[in-house]
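In this supplementary section we document a worked example of the pipeline. Step one takes a protein sequence of length 368 as its only input; no multiple sequence alignment statistics are reported here. Step two produces a three-dimensional model, which step three serialises into structure tokens for compact storage. The input and output of this example are shown verbatim.
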Amino acid sequence: MLLGLLDWWEPILRGAGWYETAEVVRSITFRGALASVTAFLLTLILGPRVIALLARHCPERIASASAQLDALQRQQNKHQVPTMGGLFIVAAIVLAVIVWGDLSNRYVQLALFSVLAFGALGAIDDWTKLTGRSRGLSVRWKLAWQLALAVVVMTVLYRHHRSVPGGLQMAVPFAGLSFELGVGFFALGLLVLVGSSNAVNLTDGLDGLAGGCLLFAGAAFAVLCYLAGHVKLAEYLAVPYLAGSGDLAVVMAAMVGSVLGFLWFNCYPAQVFMGDTGSLSLGALVGLAAFVTRQELLLLVVGGVFVAEAASVLLQVGFFKWTRRRLMLCAPLHHHFQFKGWHEMKIVVRFWIAAAVLAILAVASLKI
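The serialised model returned by step three reads:
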């Protein structure tokens, strides 16, 4: 919206001698910083109002596949905390991007669609749980809808990237290599979007855990998006240059601001949970940023905590089916440490530290 107003006022700004100032406002760094601050403030403003509304209608329903975990969560009064806090995270991101983002940019459009569409799917899943009819959408239906949304995103992205030099190449971190994906670009994109959204969803099990890890992942990909959209920096760091991808950094900055504001209410002891509404939408956004910048392999490093959480579930299920014994006390991984007697905050902070180190390592790897 701001860019449109600047275009409209350009003759007036030139006549008043303020054109150079307007050009500063157009810069991605300026708009990204303001988008982050705007999203943060919006989250703080919307948070208490939305939490009060959710507390009346959307208390967390304790009903997992583990009776022992349910008993532990009831003991910690988790059932008294409202869920679906992702509603004001998504609202803050969308409003901040509308103000500071380039709405004519294809990547920004896809980011907004992903946040809203995956957020809506998560909201339906959350509401289904809250009504008490079931534990949410069935795994089959949830996965089917995630794939359907990912197909829409990847269809648009594939058609766009076919005409972009290097748009269908995959970058190999730590090696400075890349190779052509061709139509494999589409299939890999589905895996990245769906896998990323589900991995974040699985991590959202302790107060502040998913939010803190998303903070570091979002910041890392804000930097990566900016670098990929900057001709000279992309050439210097030998990363794929994707024209227009720099504007996605504004979206990622808005995500960082909104998650930071959400943590104000979600830190231990939590006043609200983000629910699937937040975890699915934010996970899809991180996956999209990784795919747009052609750094999907680096996502495994940046999102290493999310990867470990998802892998722990797969290993637990596979090991149990094979041996009829449990590999861990409980999955995902954070619950294993919880059952070992670790305090919730010790687990969360140590996972945050791991997420921060991995994000730093991923960005630093660009020059290795």
